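Internal QA ticket QA-208
Title: Verify multi-chain structure generation after dependency bump
Assignee: T.L.

Test input:
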Amino acid sequence: MSLTADTPAIRAQNAADEVARAYLPVGMPNPRITATVADPVLEQRFGRLWWIAFVAASGLTVTMIVSLVWLVWQGVGIWGINTTNVWGFAIANYVWWIGIGNAGTLISSMLLLTRQRWRASISRFAEAMTLFAAAIAGLFPIFHLGRPWFFFWLVPYPNTMDLMPQWRSPLVWDFFAIASYLIFSLLFWYTGALPDFATMRDKAKGRIGRKIYGAFALGWRGSARHWHHYEAYYRAMAALGVPLVVSVHSVVGMDFAAGVMSGWNETIFPPYFVVGAMFSGFAMVVVLAALIRRGLGLHDLITMNHFDVMARILLVASLIMSISYVTEWFFAWYSGDYSERFVTWFEFQGIYAPFYWTMLACNCLFPLLYAFRAARRSLPIVIAVAILINVGMWLERILIISETLSRGHLPSQWRVYVPTIWDWLLLAGTLGFFAWMFLLFVRLVPAVSIHEVKERTREAEA
Amino acid sequence: MTQGLFMARVRDADDLLSLARAARELGFETADAHSPHVIEGMDAALGLRASPVRPAMLVAGLVGAAAIFALQWWNSVYGYPINSGGRPLNSWPAYLFATFETGIAAAAIAGFVTMLWKSALPRPHHPIFEAREAAAITDDGFFLTVDMNDRQARYRAVELLRARPEVIAAEVVE
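Actual output:
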């Protein structure tokens, strides 16, 4: 509805209507919304591209399994880590993956709480991304333990050794953060998908499909009583999701900040890590959104406006990252501490300097393109910059670890970190495993929240 | 136990709201609405009481957090005191990480269980699935159902609700 009288309230209302129309398929009847999302899963054949991607992802998944088996067989010595660089790719990958996961929860929770209508189209696969990324992230600290088969010693349980975990250890904080986060993400994602599983049950043609989707739908029948409790739970979960994400990535930041190493022992770390997580995760959502939109033909539900608004968020996050870097440099100088200043000098001039400059370009320079509307409206540019951000954020994670550890307090211990083939294979393997799970997800689960798009579209039409 | 279900289909969410209000005014306590998405105001139209999901989450969250904090405190101060770099045995700020995370996890689990329990799910079989148009609920179907335990309700349901202008189709599922 568009009113013509010119008062601030009506102008605001008209602007809000305009926004809603830009992100929602206003005017599209419910059966078509259902069909747009459900048909690619139920009816269309998988297509050659999907199979090529799936075979490639399966190959990388096998690579991941082989590298993990070899790691357990041989020990962590197959990696590039040594007594100086005790944390290498494993911890960098962990931080990077969990950061990617965090954006999924943030998109889902924060945008639901602030009633952003553009959430409906992207929340489902963003949450799936969270689930897969957090599960992969959890692997790294466990396999980095050296004797991963004793990981359950992190769980406080009555045992014959009469021992409990060391509660002051960041490793134990990590365990609680990841475990809670996984449980939370799984419940949040599944609850949001529950009504859509019922839609799939009712739409499925075959007996087996009906049975399987029916089992996941738990007998959902869209009753007002179901919706009543569903809403109460889903919104409460969204409200818990925001502080949970902040706490999870703060704990990751504390893994570093709780140590006394130069370049780590900084109060800025928790918020700096949270923003970095949002930055890389949103960039990943942009890439996945582009792939899903093309692969499933969801052009009506994921529009250029969605990319535009995500690019704006990335721009802001990039500026915050830049400020964080500058703050780090400033405090290294301002502290007057020799080793702090030395590590900062080492970043710009040391052996890893080319990577550091690349990281600054990826995280601070290229995202500035998003300041221009033409760039935000060009899908190739949006995607290219998003990929660069992911590369830059991964470099940031590995550099935070290696710059500091390679130049510790004891010059006789200085060594350079050189990753081995097994470091690279495991990284590639986890990327493939992520792709593998995601490819299965888009073929088996509605990639967009059907019921939420219907609800928001109705609101926008009213 | 359900002996029959009167089902009336309406065109859209607004009609379902008005029909739900009418059913409630007519005294059908067991009236229920079925829709493919959440309808704002439906809780009030059917007179549903506030959901116990959030109180359950709050209690579980607090209990879970308190329990894990108590474990950490007891374990560090009495169970196995270790002098770690001269830090106090009761280093409570360090214990808050596990406390917070456990509280959230406990609330999430308790809320999920309460949601399913109060919705009487999982329930793979329900009379409504016998209805001709049941599959439409999750697509574009808006239905009002009345649980008919006796002949009286059956009579009234059919007479009063079927006559409403919003209804476009009605059936009785045995």
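Spot checks passed. Chain A has 16 helices and no strands.
Status: verified.
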